UniProtKB/TrEMBL annotation:
<dbReference type="InterPro" id="IPR037171">
    <property type="entry name" value="NagB/RpiA_transferase-like"/>
</dbReference>
<dbReference type="InterPro" id="IPR004165">
    <property type="entry name" value="CoA_trans_fam_I"/>
</dbReference>
<dbReference type="Pfam" id="PF01144">
    <property type="entry name" value="CoA_trans"/>
</dbReference>
<dbReference type="InterPro" id="IPR012792">
    <property type="entry name" value="3-oxoacid_CoA-transf_A"/>
</dbReference>
<protein>
    <submittedName>
        <fullName>CoA transferase subunit A</fullName>
    </submittedName>
</protein>
<dbReference type="GO" id="GO:0008410">
    <property type="term" value="F:CoA-transferase activity"/>
</dbReference>
<keyword id="KW-0808">Transferase</keyword>
């Protein structure tokens, strides 16, 4: 089926580089590097953007996923659930080169989801009575106290999909799906790296997880050896 170029969101890695800038807030899908968009991350490194605030489940590994951006000291602030798989992130944090804000994984995911849904924030009770509540706004609902966690959004969201059609409908690959559907909703600009770009009508509607309304641009993946990634993870 022929797709009108005016509505097709398929573009090149070269053309999306203009969306990356110094000081931007970047949201990245992935879990331990799996499901993170490798070609886009390499493109950011080539483009040179720095002083980035990164929102991601974790810091990846030093040579996998968003960990590359940390290793190259492109990140000034990281919002994540853990950084243990990336020693470089821990080193930079202790040397005060990298500011790290930790959230429980579920809280982080919900803050991103809230941002994508246009909500102001979420209510949580995890951490009440501890240092976690310092500086947090609180409210009472039905007699129970909660902390208010503001929603998270980003200037640019980058995600990885197994398949995409030219309108931006996305299918993910099993566990590589992880936070990608949430991240796709929460960016002012959402850029998708797709392993495969298929024609209109080739995706089973029941397979589609992220509808194209959330997607602004799609680039073809330059490929990643996921077997190598898993082997390197096991060696760590």
């Amino acid at each position: 089926m022929t797709v009108d170029k005016k509505v097709s969101k398929v573009t090149s890695l070269k053309d999306v580089k203009k969306y990356f800038s110094d000081g931007m807030t970047l949201m990245c899908g992935g879990f331990g590097g799996v499901g993170s968009p490798p070609s886009i991350i390499n493109s950011i490194l080539e483009q040179g953007a720095a002083n980035i605030t990164l929102i991601c489940n974790d810091a990846g590994f030093p040579w996998i996923g968003p960990g590359k951006l940390v290793t190259e000291k492109r990140i000034k602030k990281l919002l994540a659930s853990h950084i243990g798989s990336n020693p470089e992130a821990g080193k930079q944090m202790h040397e005060k080169e990298l500011e790290v804000v930790f959230y429980p994984q579920g809280t982080l995911a919900e803050k991103i989801r809230a941002g994508g849904m246009g909500l102001g924030g979420i209510l949580v009770d995890v951490g009440l009575g501890t240092i976690v509540e310092e500086g947090k706004e609180k409210t009472t609902v039905n007699g129970s106290e909660f902390m208010i966690e503001p929603a998270l959004t980003a200037d640019v969201s980058i995600v990885y999909a197994k398949k995409a059609d030219p309108y931006g409908n996305l299918v993910y690959d099993q566990t590589a799906r992880n936070t990608n559907p949430l991240v796709a909703m929460a960016g002012d600009i959402t850029i998708v790296e797709a392993e495969e770009i298929v024609g209109i009508g080739e995706l089973d509607p029941e397979e589609i997880v992220t509808p194209g309304v959330y997607v602004d641009h799609i680039v073809q993946s330059e490929g990643v050896d996921w077997k190598w990634v898993w082997e390197k993870r096991k060696d760590n």
